Records
---
Amino acid sequence: MADQDHRHKIDLEQVAEHVEEQVAYGLEVQGPVRPTRTLWRDTVRRLRKNKLAVAGLIWVSIVLVMAVTADLWVPPLLGDPIALDTTQVSARRLQPPSWEHPFGTDNLGRDVAARVVYGARVSLRVGVLAVSISVVIGLLMGAIAAFYGGLSDTIIMRLADVFFAFPYILFAIAMIALLGPSETNVFIAIGILGWPSIARVFRSSILSVKENEYVDAARALGASDPRILSRHILPNAVAPIIVYGTMSIGGAILSEAALSFLGMGVQPPQPSWGNMLAEARSMMVVAPWIMLWPGLAILTTVLAFVLMGDGLRDALDVKMKE
Amino acid sequence: MSTLLEVNGLQTYFDTIDGVLKAVDGVTFSLDRGATLGIVGESGSGKSVTALSIMRLIPMPPGRFAGGDIRYEDRSILEMSAAEVRSLRGNNIAMIFQDPMTSLNPVYRVGKQIGESLRLHKGMSRKSADVRAAELLDVVGIPNASQRAKDYPHQFSGGMRQRAMIAMAVACDPDILIADEPTTALDVTIQAQILDLMIELQQEKDTAIIMITHDLGIVADMVDNVMVMYAGRPVEEGTVDQVFYDPKHPYTWGLLDSLPRYDVDDKGRLIPIEGQPPSLIAVPSGCAFHPRCPYARDVCRAEEPKLSNLGDGHVAACHFAGSSGFVRGSTAGGAA
Amino acid sequence: MLKYVARRILQMIPVFFGVTVILFILRAPGVLPGDPIEMLTGDRVISEVTYNQLVQKHGLDQPLYVQYVTYMKNLFKGDLGLSYKKNRSVTEIFVEKYPYTLRLALAAILIEMIVGLSVGIISAVKRYSFWDVAVTLSTSILVSLPVFWLGMLMQVLFGIYFKRWGLPYLPISGMGNPPDLAHLIMPAITLASVSTAYVARIMRSQMIDVSQQDYIRTAEAKGLKGGAVVRKHALKNALIPVVTFIGIDLGAMLAGAILTETVFNWPGIGYEIYLAITARDWPIVTGGVVIVVIAYMIINLLVDVSYAFLDPRIRYGGEAA
């Protein structure tokens, strides 16, 4: 809850770049210098900033490719991530990292590296599906609230408040207690819990676009509400959703890990980074290396999504501010 | 009258990714005690940077003083230690900024903000600073001043805030008051009141004023001398009469033509200056104004004009400023 | 000001009722899997008479809305009902557990404020320095790592390995008996980690934002020292959004911290509610969430009030800030 709550809030950092520029240019030079600046300085800055975003993209692609192709290379190279050979367990269990088992083996003699790769499948699946659910519900709710306003706006935004008033992880645990712990239920729960933020972002961007004159003009020309929404408002509100969605995937991966860690997510023997950490916890004293890898996998993957989100935010020039 | 402030060949540059930005490039003027100087130009002409340079409020880096000097009572401001400059700021030289809406700190009471410099420079106690701050608000024409001193800036109207800014600036009876577009953000009706207030205070205390503006109308009403700036450089300096009734630089002509006039029976048409002010990173060769100057000739593109003395302290930086046939409205342009 | 507070309290009421109604719907028979009485009795076979007695004892024979009204009535008397499993009053359980959560939350908030604010301010003042880059990098990492993993890493390093190496080490579990500082250090750091990173980031960007404001230049033009400008004029303005964040965070922490409490076997209410959820002990869950939501709302109100204190534009209801 407290420890995970902020991941679903908007990154509050306001990138006040125009201000940096003003300093760099002294105080009085707003107008005349602009043409040269946009051409060159922005390109330089974007390239530099994007390096991190590109690194994030590369890492996500690597993880994705490894996860998708896992069936082809993991079992022959590293061994089966789930099945155990009971006759050999005692000889193979809790081995430290070696050439044969680069990340070592767990208490049941399974290759940790193989399990980490298969865990990536869960994380990416849950991350993408959960955020898709949030985005679909959030867009719908946000659009209704912003476009029709009045009572529907009040009800939806109060409902969002109720969602925010609930401690996040508790809410997720309660939903899973209802639905039963499974991967599907995890992404459903995370997805449902994510809608209020998306709805808020979408609602405020619609409201800001709605004030624009071209929307009035379209309405004056007799365009219908759905048409105004899809043709005039959606394209303008889409950038913040893309940025927020990308960052949310990282948040969803963290939430899945937390739920699985608490035993409310993906169930053993199927590997997920979260439940691997729960298992590794009991072996912390004898085999501390086991807990290193799933944690590193979560960290690097979430960081990659966050960096991608940052890069997209800068490139699309989205102001993330609540 | 004695010379209070002397600016000599001042160059204030900013180092940017794109190159060196010459915000102020060779500004020279002097200011006598009790005198009023108007600095006129478009935005980006270096007026404000000149003012901030005098206060040494240029952020460094990226800013730096590349040359020239600023002397206050014959001491070089540029060579002063940080502590010496601070003891000057708000005390001997004070400044009023353009936007009174944002220049007051929203979280402190107006009276406290006025009293701050009194406590700092005059060593006043909290209490006597409060009392004096209320008096100052009264002086600048805030009704019910001792009550209003306890208000926060957002409770003041724009005009009142600028009055408060003036109260803050004159709190320590400075020798020099620099006003950077003090009325630009205000309603026209308020503008005149604010200017009258400044003149009134000046006459009472014999304060010298540097009035920075893009509005020649303001200058005409209240200043003794005028400096017209373009692209970081002074292009014409002289008394109000000289610059207004006998301007020698085509840029000054342009400024005057774009000004609504009531005293001259024109065809009632305002003539804007064509084009945009230049980038201060890539200042045009020769005379910086030549791309926009309808009279430009080859020499204007090749050679930078020096300020030439036209007599009685009237100077202009134009190759033809002294030529007899070169008058406003003549189509003597070589390019034509 | 009073009007403002009153308005904020009024706004909370529907949220509070919304939360309790949702909780009650979740408790309705058929919504939750499993029969509460079976949960209560476990595998023991009981007679129908006993069953009906238990149903009556917990008020489960009443229609749902009657149960809700009864529950809310009792709630205002401070009675949160009986636990299905522990045969104790829920109020009693939370009265016992809450101080532990409070202890951990306050320690974490303290770390968050001291470290987060100072790191953020230094980063802003020394912008683009090596320090600033290092801070930006490490805050990105901190917000991307699972807190429970951070807790485990610290346990392994400062608990297990330091002990092995013969260095002074920290206890890795529990609160100590009697509770001591050594047991508090690692859980508090773990709980504070993510928020500290956020506070540092927000503080940095706020300070940079504020230092560009015209009134900062005004203060400099008065002849104030750079340090005094930062302290007197920049800080108070920059703090306004940070205070909001820290307050909301405190509210979240007072709701307990399941992950941190689980990793360090800390007997707080987050862990208690989590156990109750897995055991389907609904009175504890409902009671816990109600307490948590109330705490959360009170903190939010306090945040808004302190916000108004820092920002006179809100206090005097002038223009919208």
---
Amino acid sequence: MSAPTMPEKVAGIVPEKFEKFGLRHYLICLKGVVLRECLRFLHQRERFISSLVRPLIWLFIFAAGFRQVLGVSIIPPYKTYVLYEVYITPGLCGMILLFSGMQSSLSMVYDREMGNMRTLLVSPFPRWFLLVSKMLAGVSVSIAQVYAFLIVAWFWGVKAPPIGYLMVLPALFLSGMMLCALGMLLSSMIKQLENFAGIMNFVIFPGYFASPALYPLWRIQEASPLLYKICLANPFTYAVELIRFAFYGQINWLSLGVVAGCTLLFLAAAIIAYDPSRGMMTRKQDTGGNA
Amino acid sequence: MAALDVAGVSHSYGPKRALNDVSFSIAPATFTVLLGLNGAGKTTLFSLISHLYDTRRGSIRIFGHDVSRASGEALRRVGIVFQARTLDLDLSVHQNLSYHAALHGIGGREARQRIAALLATVDMRGRQHDKARSLSGGQMRRIEIARALLHRPSLLLLDEATVGLDIQSRAGILATIRKLVETEGIGVLWATHLIDEVEDGDHVVVLRQGELVAKGKVTDVVKASGAGSIRDAFSRLSRIEAAGIAEISP
């Protein structure tokens, strides 16, 4: 600071009497957290491009190559034979949500290491509200990525019923919440950014491949009954099916129940994990200071 | 009512004790220096006061509000400048400050007005659209101070706020904070290991390896420790073999 220049009376610093937080204040906080996540996303163009390129490679290259090999019989919600590209599109939407959810947990680990997370955690709003806001922010960004992907897929000739693009929104939202909550829970367990590679190997890839994202469950059952059971125990399976049915204006109630239940479970666990009196945060050595 | 009341606080990381039965209080509108060498427990104490960690033994009250039981009310009254840089480097100065305002339920025109006023206060007027990444260390600190003041706290905590800055920046930041105590009546807890940041009129709290070894007015601490200056007193109090607590009444 070149000179300690101070106005005679500093405007706007007089300690004030605080009114109780109302709905308006909560909405301001939520908007602020969502806006920050969106701005960060916009500033990181590489993140946006890579999030779009990944599913497009699967759609353009993988699906084209495997179309002839992996036949898909008529299974609900489809009423006719569908192209393999059409079949994997809901799975690719799930893939975007999965990677984005994990990426948001990565950003939380980064924020915690760099100290940015503290600015969030020392806010006077309840910790659960801050974490839910952070999740909503992550889901908003994820959904924007999914729709960007769907637009490109539409031009590629992979089209869902027009109403499906609207009907899928709640399914994307709920699935995104589940995956963000899982990411948040994982972020509370990761001590250092370097440990995140483990998440890639132990959560993202197994979660994605042990699901009906790329091939129907009946095919998996034929190939390996054990893998089939693993798929049934995988929450991501239900997220993909929820999205798939929603594209055709249908609700898969089992998937809805599992995804909603897992969302609540992961969220509750994440809130406990980030609660300084009960969670894992308090057991960790502070990385940003002395002692 | 004390701006900050720390009573019998202990904290451990597993078997390692970081703070042991620390008690002191800070009156409103006073400048208190929390002195301690690296590893003395300053950052742990800050993490407890700001509720990043839960206070498991003892209690911490900010203007009467228990940090553990009424963390929201307590945190509304405190502004914090952490030792580590906490600005989002990808965002502009204004975006960083707006984000913090939102985290305190302040939005719209009110947030913009406060940001403009505070940027003038910390001598950063006209820099609101600069990316945080483009600022120098001293400028980042000034923005962090403006951010800590956005919600008009009555108590300001600064953890090693001048570490890594040049002499001029250090002096400027220190002068700005001291002026806030004088003109706005804000209580300040300034953690540092740099003894030249302490002035005779200040209050000090000295930590050594998690133990409180002295507290009170600088002149009283110097006198009680039998030293000729606060520098000598701090050297004596910080020695490993030093024993006993220099209890000084403010």
